[in-house]
Design goal:
The chain has helices spanning 14-17, 52-75, 89-95, 143-146, 161-168, and strands spanning 30-35, 38-43, 101-102, 108-113, 125-133, 139-142, 150-153, 175-180, 205-213. By secondary structure, it is an alpha+beta fold. Strands 3, 4, 5, 6, 7, 8 and 9 form a seven-stranded antiparallel β-sheet that branches.
């Protein structure tokens, strides 16, 4: 079974700590104005917008454009994006009756399914599927959307602390929901992106994770 080891939002160092590209203020802004059938080009003669008012109008214009696209999609009757999950509606209902376990670190979890295979030793590679959510349930990262389990060395700091801790006590074939407190999640947060909510620094997150297999260790589960 193939697995992916490509970079992911799960990295504690990164995602948030790496410096992004530097955005430089343009020396000159060129605008294309269309009035009825007449097209006219206007080129600025200064290095910055003339006033804060101009800057505010620019921001409002972009925001209005974004809103108009959202309203157009809604008016067209387009269905909301249905992302794959490890715990669907029936699973969510059953999870309400599953006891919550709280560890010394503050990590909490509920076992959706207890596996029958071995638990991973620290430093071993594991192949796991995950769906990462903000507390409201909005997904910000998922291996299911990539189509391959995520392959990494558990307990080695290759993923966020809460995920490392939660996986170490799982058995292969198991599935678990992790309620990860801010200190064990993303210290510097994650910026929002199209279809992905923002994760604030040191904010709690929720992970549904399934431990698919541990390369090199045999599983008793067929």
């Amino acid at each position: 079974m193939a697995a992916s080891s490509s970079p992911s939002l799960l990295l504690p160092l990164g995602s948030a700590s790496r410096n992004g590209p530097t955005i430089k203020t343009p020396r000159c802004i060129s605008t294309r104005v269309i009035i009825a059938s007449e097209t006219r080009h206007e080129t600025c003669k200064t290095n910055t917008l003339s006033s804060r008012r101009d800057a505010m109008l620019l921001v409002l214009g972009v925001s209005g454009l974004s809103m108009s696209y959202s309203l157009a999609s809604y008016a067209a009757g387009l269905p909301p994006e249905d992302k794959p999950r490890l715990c669907e509606a029936e699973c969510e209902k059953e999870l309400e009756n599953v006891p919550m376990v709280t560890t010394e670190s503050g990590l909490q979890y509920k076992d959706i399914k207890v596996g029958k295979g071995p638990s991973p030793p620290v430093g071993y590679q594991v192949a796991a599927n995950y769906v990462a959510m903000v507390p409201s349930g909005q997904i910000f990262d998922s291996s299911l959307e990539k189509g391959l389990p995520y392959l990494f060395r558990v307990g080695s700091g290759q993923v966020i602390k809460g995920l490392d801790e939660g996986l170490l006590t799982m058995k292969a074939g198991g599935k678990r929901r992790l309620y990860i407190p801010g200190p064990l999640a993303f210290p510097k947060g994650l910026v929002s992106a199209p279809g992905r909510p923002r994760v604030a620094p040191n904010s709690p997150v929720v992970f549904d994770v399934s431990l698919e297999y541990i390369p090199g260790l045999e599983s008793d589960e067929e």
